[in-house]
Specification:
about 50 residues; 3-stranded antiparallel beta sheet
Length: about 50
C-alpha cells in the first residue's frame, strides 16, 4: 500500500459557512476521524494538486 504525507494546519472554526470561505481562499477543509476525537484541519489546494 502506498502512503503520502500531507501538510496542513489545524482549524478551530467549523461549519458550512466557514468551509465555504476556506474554499474561496483555495484551501480545502478536512476532518481526520479516529481515536477518541476527530481533528479538523485544512490543506492548501496547491499541495493536493501536486499529488
Amino acid at each position: 500500500m502506498k502512503s503520502i504525507a500531507l501538510k496542513g494546519n489545524k482549524r478551530t472554526d467549523r461549519g458550512s459557512s466557514d468551509a465555504k470561505s476556506l474554499r474561496k481562499e483555495d484551501k480545502i477543509p478536512a476532518v481526520l476521524y479516529g481515536g477518541k476525537e476527530s481533528t479538523h484541519f485544512l490543506i492548501h489546494q496547491t499541495y493536493i494538486l501536486l499529488i
